[in-house]
Amino acid sequence: MLIFSVLAAAIAPGVALLAYFYWKDRYDTEPLSMVVKMFLTGVLIVLPIMIVQRGLMIWLGESPFAFSFIVSAGVEEFFKWFVLYHIIYNHTEFDEPYDGIVYATAVSLGFATLENVMYAFGEPATFGTLLVRALLPVSGHALFGVFMGYFMGRAKFQEGRKMRFFLWISFLFPFFWHGLYDFIMQSVPRSWIWLIVPFMFLLWYRGIRYVNRANSVSPFRLLKREEEVKS
């Protein structure tokens, strides 16, 4: 019974955050099967990420900067970006800018959920530690997914240099914020709470702005308004 409770507590934050961003899609909800597929893809990339990270840690040592920006943010965001680009970017279901956010958060939260489960069973986990992880690393991964998906959504509906520019930004932007988050956690262990709380507020502020912006440029927005007027 205890194992089930710990497992549920470890999984619940990721599922809840995914449901939140899924329901934020105002105009053309994505097929749930595709969202679940991308969530499970996020789960599957945990193992190769861990293998690459282990090799890099042996090579680069224990530098907080190297760990934060290369081992953690660099490897994790690259794998997420890679599977999004090769599985979703040219998919027919990716037909409005907000879809990038839905699928990117699905991949990110699949990764974060398995990571959270491994943490819960790898160390003595209490309700307090799982709550802190829900508020910090799990929601952090969700927001890095929002950033990645927003700019990938912008790239999808551009051409030429603008498309390439936003594709680069869709990796570099979450990479920077993820690396900065980890660097704060690594370099100021005694006073991190005073930095990470406002930092998380900033991430949520930017994330919600991107959610609203992506919805505001949906090609289905006018169609929905016309349907509402006719009805």
From TrEMBL:
GO terms for biological process: proteolysis. It is a multi-pass membrane protein. The gene is prsW. Coiled coil: none annotated. The keyword Transmembrane helix applies. The keyword Aminoacyl-tRNA synthetase does not apply. It comes from the Bacteria. This is Protease PrsW.
